[in-house]
UniProtKB/TrEMBL annotation:
Entry protein name: GST N-terminal domain-containing protein
Source lineage: Eukaryota, Viridiplantae, Streptophyta, Embryophyta, Tracheophyta
Superkingdom in the source lineage: Eukaryota
Species name: Salix udensis
GST N-terminal domain residues: 1-76
Annotated Gene Ontology cellular component terms: chloroplast
Length: 76
């Protein structure tokens, strides 16, 4: 099955899977009411967006998210 999606979200999801990090994925496809929910929460809509309940970190920007996940969860 092929699913078209954001290439920016894809690289973040790949790192979440690679690091075997349990996560909840909330799709914000065009037309999804979750877009408005994210906008109301952050004042902005952009995907990907991550919230880490372990650290309280909330961030946009795929490259920064990948860097954060690797720095926080990759074992050396
Ligand atoms: N520089 C950002 C770009 C992210 C981006 O452009 N995301 C698109 C989805 S692919 C987006 O949220 N666009 C706003 C919209 O769809 O309204 C990153 O690397 O995360």
């Amino acid at each position: 099955m092929s699913i078209l999606g954001s290439p920016f979200c894809k690289i973040v999801r790949e790192v979440l899977v690679e690091l075997e990090l349990p996560h909840i994925f909330r799709s914000c496809a065009r037309g999804s009411p979750k877009r408005q929910i994210l906008f109301e929460k952050t004042g902005h809509f952009q995907a990907p967006y991550i919230e880490d309940p372990n650290t309280g970190v909330q961030m946009f920007e795929s490259a920064e998210i990948v860097e954060y996940l690797k720095a926080t969860y990759a074992s050396s």
